[in-house]
Amino acid sequence: MSASGGTKAIVAALAANLAIAASKFVAFLFSGSSSMLAESVHSLADSGNQGLLLLGGKKAQREATPQHPFGYGRERYIYAFLVSIVLFSVGGMFAIYEGYEKIKHPHEIEAWYWPVGVLVFAIIAESFSFRTAIKESNPLRGQLSWKEFVRRAKAPELPVVLLEDLGALVGLILALIGVGLALVTGNGVWDGIGTLCIGVLLIVIAIVLAAETKSLLLGESAGIDEVKKIEQALVDGDTVTGIIHMRTLHLGPEELLVAAKIAVQHDETAAQVAAAIDAAEARIRDAVPIARVIYLEPDIFQASKAGGATAP
């Protein structure tokens, strides 16, 4: 997943959310709608989230140090995890609290045209932001379904923006329904129910984001296709005759560690083995460019070392 594509989607979402947050808060001041207040806080939280994603991307570009020899690529995962926490605590919990208060102490919505007009504007703006995220994600998604893309993506930015924008659009529709029912029935409880629904929606999205970014933080292997390419690149059928075992780990969205014990011919010289390892590393980097850290250990193949497997 390209950093540029993710950044473009984040900036589009940030611009949309800042404009929407301002308009929602004005609508709340004129109408007193709790849905509008919850939605304005939601948009502010989303704006903060996009700021966190941009900050994480910036910090991840730092050079490796002796203390952090594999670099700072995982900073992007940490900040994406913080986004899920902010979305849960600030967005979801606040909306649930506001919804409960409005149901407990309902009041009619004043100046109805403010919340309705702002919600329509917000839906249009969020639609453009969502469209940008979809457009930037499609080339990277390939044949994967959207669910698979969110679950398998190693770069967190686009899945986060996609889920945020989807949640924002659904939340705006819920807010519009709540405000509409409150206006039609004259009962402000509907506004509170809409706000509660927004809170539940945000918490569900936050849990999904937390689960996915937690997996990335713990360390995920390369994708199935990448593993196959690495395996094919490793074995040359001459000096390197097979793979005894191999492990891969994402050090960041665009940096992969490959560690493997490879089977070599027993009668090869040290110079021949060293040359074969250099050639194997070059083939791996050609096949999978993000494989930037490679450790290969040569060994004479024995079934007991490979857990009963046989070399190709």
Give a quick set of tags describing it:
312 residues; mainly alpha; three-stranded mixed sheet; 67% helix; 10% strand; disordered N terminus; disordered C terminus
Provide an overview of this structure.
- 67% of the residues lie in helices and 10% in strands.
- The chain is built from 9 helices and 3 strands, in the order ααααααααββαβ.
- It has helices at residues 3-31, 34-59, 75-104, 113-141, 146-152, 157-185, 189-218, 224-234, 270-287; strands at residues 240-252, 255-264, 291-299.
- The chain has a 3-stranded mixed sheet.
- Helix 9 (270-287) links the parallel strand 2 and strand 3 (291-299).
- The chain is elongated, with a radius of gyration of 25 Å.
- Residues 1-5 and 307-312 have low confidence and may be disordered.
